[in-house]
Amino acid sequence: MTTKIRLGGDRLVTDDEARAGARAAFLDAVARLEPRVVRELDALPRRVTERALTAWADRWRLNAPWALAVGRATVIARRAYLVPGATAPEAAWFDVDVLGGLAGWTPPPLPTFDPRRESRAAYRARIDPELDRRERSARADGRRPAPTRDPQQFDWLARYQVGGESYVRIAATLPGRSADGPGLVRNAIRRLARFIDLPLRSRR
């Protein structure tokens, strides 16, 4: 069974922060499965033009405003922070606004439990009201526990969108293949693409 990943870590997040986590996981899958995507960014001039950036996005079917923003920020940042002549890490994407929402909100630590000073029941009675207050406050701010998603779905979306593979071909690589495999892959890809606001390529 695949262990699901939590979008935003063990934090209380907004929907936008969860979406930022999903976008980051998708881009990580893209860089891992098709490293040429990032290498082509490295080949662009530092003062990248919109025409060159749009051509890159068209070539890899990353035609979403947020993906273009990440591409632009990555071109600038990788040149600003990497030592000249060093090999650029393939998965180093940069964008404070688009991917920086991963921070979420981490509440301050609770008092520690010391069995020498109080019973477990007394400790629970002491902290439960604070836990309830924190949950009410977080939900009032639109925060909730970060949602989870099967990590292989990010690979499926990267393989379909950037790698150009079909639903059938992706499904053929799954363990325990079944007749409904392509449908399962198709539905997962469509849901994830919709969640991260990525227009899917036309089927070929």
Structure description:
The chain is mainly alpha-helical and 204 residues long. It contains nine helices and four strands. Helix 1 (15-33) crosses helix 7 and helix 7 (152-161) crosses helix 9. Residues 98-105 have low confidence and may be disordered.
Mean pLDDT: 78
Question: How many individual β-strands?
Answer: 4
| SSE order, one letter for each helix or strand | EEHHHHHHEEHHH
Please state the CA-atom Rg, rounded to the nearest Å.
21 Å
Q: Major β-sheet, in short? A: 2 strands, antiparallel
Percent helix: 40-55%
The DSSP helix count reads: 9
Alpha-carbon distance between the termini? 31 Å
Structural class of the helix and strand makeup? mainly alpha
- Percent of sequence in beta strands: under 5%
Widest sheet: strand order? Answer: 1-4
User: Segments where pLDDT lies below 50 for 5+ residues?
Assistant: 98-105
The gross shape turns out to be: extended
In short:
The protein is mostly helical. It has helices spanning 15-33, 36-43, 50-60, 65-81, 96-99, 120-140, 152-161, 167-172, 181-195, and strands spanning 5-6, 12-13, 144-145, 148-149. α1 crosses α7 and α7 crosses α9 (181-195).
Which properties best describe this structure?
204 residues, mainly alpha, two-stranded antiparallel sheet, 4 strands
